[in-house]
Amino acid sequence: MKKIVCTLLPILVIALAFGTVSAMAQNAPDDVYALAYFSGANNKNNPDTTLRVINDGSAGEADLCAAIYVFDNSQEMQACCSCPVTADGIISESVNKNLLSNGLTVAVNYAGVIKVLSTATAKGGPTECSAQAKYSGAVTPGIRGWITHIQAGKTATTPQITESSLKDSNYTAQEAGDLELECQYAVLLGSGHGTCSCTAEDTAW
Questions:
Q1: What are the boundaries of each domain within the chain?
Q2: What is the rounded distance in angstroms from the CA atom of residue 78 to the CA atom of residue 110?
Q3: Domain spanning 25-190: CATH 2.60.290.11
Q4: Cα-flanking dihedrals φ and ψ of residue 20, to 5°?
Q5: pLDDT averaged over consecutive 10-residue blocks of the chain (205 residues)?
Q6: CA-based angle 103:168:54, to the nearest 5?
């Protein structure tokens, strides 16, 4: 009996370890979907903040699209766009000027959430990117990002700027579909509003 128990114990340990590793793998970030917050935006007493995105080259020499979805602090999508980024390229987007200046509603957005999805370019051309489902390419790893934040300074008139990387999150087809569908509605209902804008790669904020 002792012999059987001694034989089974290593097997159980290996099985438990394998199960733990498998669970961790299922919950691990997949480098295609990331998010961040913004705050202190559209405040004349605060400096502007910046979203920077790179194509890390993991897709080879291929261009990628950074699909950007901007939500207000009531969880409503205010703007969406998708920006082309060449291999090893970088773009810099002003939160106030590029991401918030053409929101879906007339409300001024001071705080909210930014989500970024990494996709291939659409079939129509090497730099064709769209955050809407019918135009978007396949989800493809390679887009990485950072964002600056406004923090309280030593006095109310001297805010400080910090920077952090976008937080990797688990990609699901349902989440991507919801984002793309909400973007379609924002563009349709906005009649010219509800879209953000992209800077050229050689423009830095």
A1: 25-190
A2: 12
A3: yes
A4: -65, -45
A5: 45 38 41 93 92 93 94 95 94 96 92 95 70 76 95 73 94 92 92 92 69
A6: 70
Q: Identify whether the C-beta of residue 40 lies closer than 8 Å to the C-beta of residue 49.
A: yes
Closest Cα to residue 196, out of 95, 108, 117? 95
Q: Can you name the residues that pair with 148 across neighbouring β-strands?
A: 163
Task: Specify the pLDDT at position 159.
Answer: 83
Pairing of strands 50-55, 90-94: antiparallel
pLDDT confidence of residue 134 = 60
**Edge-to-edge strand list for the sheet holding 160-165:** 90-94, 50-55, 143-151, 160-165
Beta-sheet pairing, 160-165 with 143-151 = antiparallel
In terms of Cα–Cα distance, which of 131, 50, 120 is closest to 85? 120
Cα(55)–Cα(119) distance, integer angstroms: 11
Question: Cα 10 to the chain's mean position, in Å?
Answer: 43
Q: In what helix (H) or strand (E) does residue 3 lie, and over which residues does it extend?
A: helix 2-27
Query: Phi/psi class of residue 40: alpha, beta or left (left: φ > 0; alpha: ψ in -120 to 50)?
Result: left
Percent composition of the chain: helix, strand, coil (DSSP 3-state, to 5): 25, 30, 45
Retrieve residue 141's tokens. 């790893």
Q: Which amino acid is at 102?
A: N
Matching residue, tokens 């590029």:
98
Question: Is 70 in a helix, a strand, or coil?
Answer: strand
Q: Could you tell me the two tokens for 167?
A: 């937080």
For residue 179, give both structure tokens: 């984002």
